[in-house]
Design a protein that fits this description.
Strand content: 15-25%
Low-confidence stretches: none
CATH class of the largest domain: Mainly Beta
CATH architecture of the largest domain: Sandwich
Structural class: alpha+beta
Order of helices and strands: HHEEEEEEHEEHHHEEHHEEH
Largest sheet: 4 strands, antiparallel
Number of helices: 9
Length: 239
């Protein structure tokens, strides 16, 4: 939970964040005020879980600061990292709508703050405001198409192309221009990259070394710098 000293600042930040989320753009201002007033502020240290796969979902989660890693785990303990959610991203839409358990694990990739909007408050707003419900349906449609694209990539793309495409997607969402290229401003070990690709660390490390030898990327301190976007895009398209 946020401390009493942090709460007023975080609630103001939460209201500003909600106003900037495209999927909530047509919600009434009073509805966004209610989300903030009735929501709870939750803070997480790195690797703490915001929600767990298979558990009941009691709130819509909105990222206010930091980054949330979304993953799926097998009984063996193997993990597949699906994505990293930044400020303004929403979690738990599907389990709130269908009443089933949470689909994925969501853990803090770094210190993170979240607004948890109670399920009853969120669902009542959907019932009362058709434009808001339509926008949430658009969000679900968008995510379904993204998931379909990932399934196709997993089945059809060879590892070099998948590795290149994943780096390009990370650059799109976390890229910061630098003198020597575009920094992916997300601390990500090669083990974590391998978990995103669903391959062994050894095979992914080989692809990263090839890209470094070709001077397309540079790695240092669990971060990647894209030095040649055109060359990386060509590799991503070669399948």
């Amino acid at each position: 939970m946020a401390s009493p000293q942090q709460a007023p600042t975080l609630r103001k930040q939460a209201r500003e964040t909600l106003a900037g989320i495209p999927w909530l753009r047509r919600a009434a201002p009073a509805t966004l005020d209610r989300f903030v007033a009735q929501g709870s502020l939750r803070s997480f240290r790195r690797d703490e879980f915001a929600c767990r796969q298979g558990e009941p979902a009691d709130a819509l989660l909105v990222v206010l600061s930091g980054i949330i890693e979304v993953s799926s785990s097998a009984p063996s303990g193997n993990r597949h990292v699906l994505t990293h959610l930044q400020v303004g991203r929403l979690l738990n839409v599907v389990p709130l709508l269908d009443g089933e358990p949470t689909i994925y694990d969501a853990r803090a990739h770094q210190p993170t703050a979240i607004l948890a909007i109670p399920a009853a408050v969120f669902l009542a707003a959907l019932d009362a405001e058709r434009p808001l419900a339509d926008d949430i349906m658009q969000l679900l449609s968008f995510r379904t198409r993204m998931l379909a694209g990932r399934v196709s990539d997993d089945a059809l793309m060879p590892l070099p192309a998948r590795c290149a495409k994943t780096l390009l997607v990370l650059m799109e969402h976390h890229g910061v221009p630098q003198a020597n290229g575009i920094l992916i401003d997300l601390k990500l070990s090669q083990e974590e990259l391998a978990q995103m690709l669903g391959r062994s660390r050894q095979s992914v490390n080989q692809e990263i070394r090839k890209l470094e030898e070709m001077e397309i990327i540079e790695t240092a301190y669990s971060r990647f710098v894209i030095k040649d976007v055109t060359a990386l895009t060509a590799i991503a398209s070669n399948y």
